[in-house]
Design goal:
This protein has helices at residues 17-31, 40-56, 62-77, 83-95, 104-113, 126-136, 148-151, 158-166, 186-191, 221-225; strands spanning 5-8, 117-122, 144-147, 176-180, 196-200, 213-215. With 226 residues, the chain is of the alpha/beta class. It has two domains: 5-16 and 100-225, 3-Layer(aba) Sandwich (Rossmann fold); 17-95, Putative phosphatase, domain 2 (DNA polymerase, domain 1).
């Protein structure tokens, strides 16, 4: 087998995060009396992703990310939002909605059958990720779960990488593969540490990064590892 270890990202790799988040966001807006129109989630999504990208490279603190994404969304739609009240309702709702891509469980099962060790590496909030993992039932497939919020550091920092690999028995970067959708956190984590990368490119994004493999569907990772 080409690889002994596969490190999967969670959101937009195994979880259909956009469906999950859009459902939760619209419901939270309604609960909190925030007007919701078609297209509003896309505005929030871009703001949110911008903050997560900054968090990934250490340019904003988690507390700033959690709050300011809602403040900025309110400014964008011209409606003042009490972020301190909106935030916990949204996070609770997100932890209670779990939508996987249809191919995620079959892929994990087949990888497991091949005897490959599987790990989850995610930049996320602990309560949200743990809740969704429990609901989805996919936690049983992983030999280790590494959530940035619990570790005090995030992908793609060297600190995060070192903490992860220190907890994987017999880890060999030459026999490992990182699978993820982010050109900010997942792919750089592999490139900067000599680990092969498999870029899950949902949107035909162009990149000059030296990725090892590119796929459109997580199930295609099976073609890569054999």
């Amino acid at each position: 087998m080409k690889y002994d270890f596969i490190l999967f990202d969670a959101d937009d790799t195994l979880f259909d995060f956009q469906k999950t988040a859009e459902k939760c966001f619209s419901e939270t807006c309604k609960k909190m009396g925030v007007p919701y129109k078609e297209g509003y989630y896309q505005i929030y999504r871009d703001i949110n992703q911008g903050y997560w990208d900054l968090y990934s490279v250490g340019k904003v603190e988690k507390a700033v990310l959690k709050r300011m994404r809602f403040v900025d969304f309110g400014k964008a739609i011209g409606h003042e939002i009490d972020a301190d009240k909106f935030m916990p309702v949204y996070e609770q709702g997100l932890s209670e909605i779990s939508i996987l891509y249809p191919e995620s469980i079959p892929t994990l099962e087949k990888v497991k059958e091949l005897g490959i060790k599987i790990y989850l590496i995610t930049n996320g909030l602990a309560n949200v990720q743990r809740g969704r993992l429990k609901l989805s039932g996919i936690g049983k497939y992983f030999d280790g779960i590494f959530i940035s919020d619990e570790m005090g550091c995030s992908k793609p920092s060297k600190t995060y990488y070192d903490l992860v690999v220190s907890q994987i028995d017999g880890f060999n970067p030459k026999k490992a593969l990182i699978v993820g959708d982010s050109l900010v956190s997942d792919i750089p984590l592999g490139i900067e540490n000599g680990v092969d990368t498999c870029y899950l490119n949902h949107t035909n994004e162009k990149t000059d990064l030296p990725i090892t493999y590119e796929i459109k569907n997580v199930s295609k990772v099976l073609n890569v590892i054999k």
